[in-house]
Amino acid sequence: MPRSVVRLVLVAFLLALTGAALVGAWLVATQRVSIPERWNPFAPLNVQAPPGPLTSWKLWRATRDPQACRAALNTSHLTYAPVADQATPEGCALHDALRVERLDEARVNSRFLATCPLALGLAMYDRHYLQPAARAVYGEDVRQILHVGSYACRNVARAAQGSLSQHAFANAIDIEGFVLTDGTRITVARDWASDTRAGAFVKLAHDGACSVFNAVLGPDYDALHRAHFHLDMGAYRLCS
């Protein structure tokens, strides 16, 4: 068969597939067909729903639309209060920020500021990754998440010059440990390198965070993170 004919057949096939996809999307969007929420790309993110093949896409979409982010956050049991927008001369800013008081299933050692995307990521992390990891390793829930701050008007790595950190926008949080319902205390600094249940759990907690947050930095990244996990919803993806 001549190459020109092969190309025409391929183009026709691709056009047919594109058309079928567009028709399918129109049918779903206009509700002329009904499909389960986990398979519906137009259904909003529901934090309570089990993760499905489109969950990452729905989370990504929600974090880029303030109204969709708040709507998704309100499907969780996260407790928060809105915070007024503010900015500093150095360029740090709080925009559409929240003061998080507790997560869905775990308390926090102190309230903290967060962008809606960060709060939504934490709600997803707590419910679908952190708690299942604790139950798998210990048969216990995480009662409290120990953090050492979110908002801080500073540059990356606290450098005197350079780019502002995601902390400068309350779009990052540093987590140093966890407390289980039986009182067991697990810390990144002590347990990361240990060959124990605590070590296994803290590594699962790290890996689960990589499924939700855009950047996850831990002890293997550098000495500055030897005692905590840095989690953020910035523009760059990194899991280390």
Report on the architecture of this protein.
- With 240 residues, the chain is an alpha+beta fold.
- The protein has six helices and eleven strands.
- It has helices at residues 3-29, 55-62, 66-73, 116-138, 188-191, 197-210, and strands at residues 79-83, 86-87, 93-94, 97-102, 107-115, 142-147, 172-180, 185-187, 215-217, 229-232, 238-239.
- The longest helix has 27 residues, at 3-29.
- The protein is globular and about 45 Å long.
Percentage of residues in strands:
15-25%
Average pLDDT rating: 89
- What string gives the helices and strands in order? HHHEEEEEHEEEHHEEE
Radius of gyration from the alpha-carbon trace, in angstroms:
21 Å
Feature tags:
6 helices; alpha+beta; 240 residues; nine-stranded mixed β-sheet
Write the layout of secondary structure elements.
Layout (H helix, E strand, L loop, with lengths): L2 H27 L25 H8 L3 H8 L5 E5 L2 E2 L5 E2 L2 E6 L4 E9 H23 L3 E6 L24 E9 L4 E3 H4 L5 H14 L4 E3 L11 E4 L5 E2 L1
Helix pairs in contact: 3-4, 4-6
Summarize this entry quickly:
With 240 residues, this protein is α+β, with helices and mostly antiparallel strands.
